[in-house]
Amino acid sequence: MKIEIDVADFAEKIKSGKGLSGKDGALTDLVRQITEMTLQAELESHLAQDLQKNRKNGYMSKTMRTEHGEFELETPRDRNGSFEPQIVKKSQTYLSDEIEKKMLSLFSLGSSYSQISEHIEDIYGVHFSKPAITTVTDKLIPMLEEWKIRPLDAIYPFIYLDAIHYKVREDGHYVSKAFYTVLGINLEGKKEILGLYLNESEGAKFWLQVLTDLQNRGVQDILIASVDGLKGFPEAINAVFPETEVQLCIVHQIRNSVKYIASKDQKIFVGELKSVYQAFTKEEAELALDKLESKWGKKYPIVFESWRNKWDNLSNYFKYPEPIRRIIYTTNIIESIHRQFRTLTKTKGAFPNDNSLLKLLFAGIRNAEKKWTMPIHNWSLTISQLNIFFKERLKDALGLGL
């Protein structure tokens, strides 16, 4: 079938000042003409190959949306109902994925459904309801499920583990849930979110499940894990990865200490505490901690009890040179990602279900990962220094084995 379009009508609309886009736009009508003619060609080809008695059976009208505007499309039907159009599927309501991509882009930046609807209508002259936008964003869910079980690298020099909390509706009321984030630095020095996990609350027991999942997906070794001061965290990590060194976040420890210091003493105490965590060696740090305790210990014993009980994991970073210290002494790198999550979700308040939260955070991660194309600062020196400390565990991964 030869497709012919009304070029004269198209030209006349342009001359008369009609816009290209929008419901009555010249280009919108041209797209409609081409689509309907192509559908006619598809039906005639189908009827020619159908050995049973079959023929045309009128049309079915439906609203189509495109980046140029929306129009009513007359879709031809056959008597037997065996015709399956290809250019526009039976359930399809828009022609290209341009609008869908724009929706997902806005969604990944934290725009609400109302903002997305308004933006799409301003650009394309096409209105989408909230349920229609939900249908588009729900396409992220199977992608998320596939992403969550993807194979991981065998070895990660560094990982960071932390949780962020959200309100999610469950059984008719809203409950607080912990969203677990695992950030890895791979052998190329690039950041990578290894997994997303959601649970009722943050705890070492669930972190054990998270780490087991990483192992099941191919992770064989982690050199250093940086975490906050959650009780039982180091034991959970070493239960799955016994050779992994666990570094507790110094920043978290300082924050927790300040909670127990009277406001009038906080500024002085924090200033003097620098002599501990900024020391050059572990020995110097221990002497500084002794001196600090002799001054403040009787007044704030709980603070020093915490530092003493956690000292083995707090002081691991002293054995390394500055480039490695800077990477592991704090979990700020993952907290910056959580700040991005909060920017995405700040207008949401609470979420109607788990998937509504997970798909939004997944969209944000996909957006962030587009920028993670370069290794972290000074990576060449860092990996060289790591090779000194972990030569046997790195030699095969770095291709240095004999």
UniProtKB/TrEMBL annotation:
Belongs to the transposase mutator family. Required for the transposition of the insertion element. GO terms for molecular function: DNA binding; transposase activity. One of its GO terms (biological process) is DNA transposition. This is Mutator family transposase. Keywords: DNA recombination, DNA-binding, Transposable element, Transposition. It comes from the Bacteria. The keyword Transferase does not apply. The lineage of its organism: Bacteria, Pseudomonadati, Campylobacterota, Epsilonproteobacteria, Campylobacterales. InterPro entries: Transposase_mutator. It comes from Candidatus Sulfurimonas baltica. The keyword DNA-binding applies.
